[in-house]
User: Fold these one by one.
Assistant:
Number 1:
Amino acid sequence: MELRHLRYFVAVAEELHFTRAAERLNMAQPPLSQQIRQLESELGVQLFQRTKRQVELTAAGKNFLKNVYKILIDLDKTCDSAQRAQKGEIGNIVVGFTGTATYDILPKLLQPYRSEFPFVDISVLQLSTTDQIQSLLNGEINIGILCAPIKNSQLNFEVIHQEPFIIAMPRNHPLASKSGPIEVQEFSKELFIMIPRNSGQIYYDTIINICHNAGFSPNITQEVHELHTSISLVAAGMGVALVPDSIQNLRVRGITYRQLKNSVSTLKTALAWRNDETSPLVHTFIALAKKSIKKLA
């Protein structure tokens, strides 16, 4: 039995007339009658009661039609699912991200993606840049949103966003009332709250370089693993922190933010994926991510 036999049967069952069914199928009537007889022979049942005046479904034919409808509907769904999978419209994808992407980049990427591809199951994992690299190579995540620059011959990288570092200080800090950008060296005697280097090497080294370029080494009094924790400690008067500009999207009382004067260091965020990645899901995510960041930047 072939799929065409089922479609021939449905046409005759719905028309209850071989000539009209043949016209509907764009074929001659004799071959259609022959195909239906072959189907009946293969099934071992009579599907139609034929007379010179009319064609009627037998009880077996009515039962068979009901189940054929289900088969054809399931087949259409299966074909549609395969086509959508090829287009990257359904399936599962796992995205890694650094804590620095939480307050700006991640919402800008995920919201339009979920809107355009509602049938894709997307999971997100917060991982350091180093851990994301390893997870990409191990196939544990499909895409990384991490700090750049990174070099790895097995991965593709594309910077999608850059933002300056700013200084976060308690609202009652002597410099909080100062308007405009502030020189970093004005904080050379301050206590600094930092993310440890093993949680984000690039992020950590960039902050150290900002301080060194200003002529001092930061006095690190507290190390925390989350940016929002560092901001909370700043608000509590435990010190100051150099943080990415997007952290201002996190509303915390008791904090004052100021731009840095003469600082050219920026936090670069990149997408990362394997060189041998063939999944349409990954490539549609990357394409939409580029468009979303460009549109919303």
Note: The first strand starts at residue 48 and ends at 50.
Number 2:
Amino acid sequence: MGIYNRVGWEHTEYTGHTDNVFAVAWSPDGTRIASGGRDNTVHIWDPLNCQRLLTFHGHPTCILAIAWSPDSQYLATSCTSGLVQVWQARTGTIIHTYRGHTRFVRSVSWSPDGTCIVSGGDYGDNTVQVWQAFDGTHLYTHSGQYRIFSSLWSPRTARIASSCFEDNVQVWDATTGDHQIQYDGHRGAVYATSWSPDGTRIASAGHDRQAHIWDASSGQTLCIYREHTHFIKAIAWSPNGDFLTSAGNDTILQVWNAETGQRLVSEFRQHQHWIRSLAWSPDSTVIASASQQSIHLWLWQQSRY
């Protein structure tokens, strides 16, 4: 991870896109970043030098979500036309096109074993669908929420959490679709969710300018973070489980303690516009944040705290 260990390196930027970037995801092996947005392309690039490795042109409309397979070999990407593409990350070859949704697909997530994908539809679709990743076989549809903003598979358990325009997050069985619990702690739309790496807690954030951490089994609120001044559109748990980063319409990226909710670092203020997506490097040392036409990489030096 060479550049990350250079003395004094704090921040760099990828500027390969020609329009707003809405999604960014770090490969599980730590070697690549994928990003996509309004220019209808997905870029795969090297975080060490910010050089583009591949451009994927397989979507007809704006990219909304990106997810790497657990083995870093494939990507699932979605767009405003309702399509989800599964493709090879090294070559850009399309493996399958999933057409089960009717409108915007704002979220995609792989099962921990890499065999299935969950995708969530916004606007006129309003469904969360689970399907086999490599042939698109539909397994079931979870309904009952209006405008799905996030749908995430737990990293350790057979559960999925989905959030929506209404003020709730639902947790349900990933194999059967059976409802387990509903979290109602927010006031207004819940735009973003993130599972803790051990699958025991969920962080959620949204229109009420708050980020909540709560127990994924009982729904009990454990912590509320109130440092943002505008809507929170993105939240991400560090892979080591110690930190959360959150950002949104106030253009400020904040890092805070996952146990206490205490902010741990002065705000990162390089962005001039809304931040729409966040991703941690697998070793929890670098944060990627997307806004307008660029993705910023921030060195997170845990040794300071």
Note: The CA atoms of residues 68 and 75 lie 5 Å apart.
Number 3:
Amino acid sequence: MDSVTQAALGAAVAGMIAGRKASPKVLVAGAMLGTVPDLDVFIDYGDPVSDMVKHRGFSHSLFVLFPFSLLLAWCWHRWRPATAFSFLHLWGLVAACLITHPILDAFTAYGTQLLWPLPVSVAVSSIFIIDPLYTLPLLVTLLAALLWRDRIASLCKAGVILSSLYLVWSVVAMNLIEQRVENQVAGTALEGKPVFVSPTPFNTVLWRIVVLGEDRYWEGLSSLLDESDTVDFLEKDRGHWPLNDKPSTLQALERFTRQFIRYEENGSQIIATDLRLGMVDYLPFRFVFASREHHADWQFPLPVQLNSPEVRIKHLPSLWLRLLGNQEIDADLCHVSEVCHDSAPPSS
């Protein structure tokens, strides 16, 4: 999630756990602790793919954050022995502020290595990386807590409960969409194929669906407000890696994305694109993994990330109408891409 949300969550959790000892200083400390795991963004792993797949790694691991929280609590208690908190109370507060950060991140599509160094990435994909409906309850109750300081703990608790209920709702909504897709592809050639479902930006009403085939993939939108449960899929070329050799960085990206990758040979470059993040042709994570000059042999330099496509403001009203259940707008959204075309899932 974004830094504002993580800071707000850390502050609210700190205020809630501090109880009667909660104060504005505790909220500030909680906000700072809530952003600590994301400091790994300042680490350069040598190339953009490694920076991507190793983000939310060790700094988001429960195996690291638990002992780190113990160390922080011990240092604080040793240097500030007059603190109002007992050691165990302080440790619980620090640990909760740190650990709720990666747990929340695990609900996004990007994925979080909660069990690093084990090669396990958790990505529930039920909430977008920025969702005002999750963040606003935290911000509103924190503002109220600063105004009514005798009720800091109870107000912070209310904010955490409200935002957590919204998170639970996001999982319920995602399961509803997944059931729609499962019902639609049943008995077709897409039955049993990998499916990726994630919310579109800033909401949990309109969802993006990607069904992965061997050399094709199908992308569609489904809103909880749709009158029909049928998803109008766009069939698109997935491509394949054309060479025998495969760079280790590409193998890492394949594991990270669970194979949800599109390959394309663009003249003197071979490009791999993460299909999970973005929509239609607004796919920001595109990397050049091989290049050559004229007809020379392919070379595998360090991967280079291509510039993200610009978001066209004129398409935002269409997305809003689609969220409200206007399924006729799917044809207009298809025009965002010059290579897509309407296609139902292939029959068996």
Note: The chain has two domains: 3-170, 186-342.
Number 4:
Amino acid sequence: MGKVGDLYRQRVADGRIEADPAQLSVLPHLDRVLDDISAAPPPEKRSAWRAFLGVGSPPPVAAPKGLYLWGGVGRGKSMLMDLMAEAATVPARRVHFHEFMQEIQAGLNRARQRGDQDTVRPVALEVAAAVRLLCFDEMQITDIADAMIVGRLFQVLLEQGVVIVTTSNRAPEDLYKHGLNRQLFLPFIALIRQRMEVVCLDSPVDHRQGRASGGQVWFCPADAAAKAAMDAIWSDLTGDAAGEPRRIEVGGRSFTLPLFADGVGRSGFWDLCGKPLGPADYLALSRTVRVLMIDGIPRLSASNYNEAKRFVTLIDALYEAKVRLIASGADQPEQLYNEGEGSFEFERTASRLREMQDADWGQDKG
């Protein structure tokens, strides 16, 4: 595979993307990471069994400097991350940060059950035994559980020679802003600055806006006309099936999707976001459906902050899984959450909701 710059220019030549001066300016930083990895000696390997037990750890190595790429929504960060994973010539993994932290939390639970004193280290060693390059998309820290372990996790990964590249909508200093016990999180920000090159993708263009749209998939306001349109789409997609509840199992528990037929799910907003569901639930949902219909998305604000936060997590899961979304809402995506705590984070969600209205969205799903 060629370098990121080569792949990017090939995509431009093929007409798959449009050249963006801001994106072009960060290509050398991405290629620098790949060059440094290629030049660095590979870390000592252990058997998977010894890695699982967390014993026989190889000595710490100086991992090449990673990259923290941040900027506004729709600027092409995820696309560049895809190209980097494709261009890598070492074992690499590209994963959404939410999904990765769910895997880490599951690993920590297994370590606790084994009675490990240091639960983070064996989990990090398992990861380090499998990859040399970790590409995280959309790093954001909103959960105190993640905030308390991510610094230790990154520290061990870097000690083991894993190179980390991540995208984010925020500068490092704005991660977990105003979070509980944030002073305990500050050393992680210092670690990012020390071990990762911080680069801003400062493009004035939101590439998710202005895309060609197909049939209408977002209806507002969420009134009787919107419901009738949603009903007609349901009938068309399912062959007039009545649908029935679908139980979705997640880690020994379950939740219910109100309607399911032929790969299409349908639910009211409050059924999915008004209940104590989290990333693992929404990831399981995104693996169950190829199309999800959501009725009655309300205006979001501080008064329904928890529900809004769940909605953001739900859209992240659907977006990563390329699930087609059809929904009715109180307003257009950009106008759903205009002020108050959480409105900044919602800018990315609104941009994704707009992109998901594209006619080609999710065509490679299933």
Note: The domain at 4-200 is CATH 3.40.50.300 (Rossmann fold).
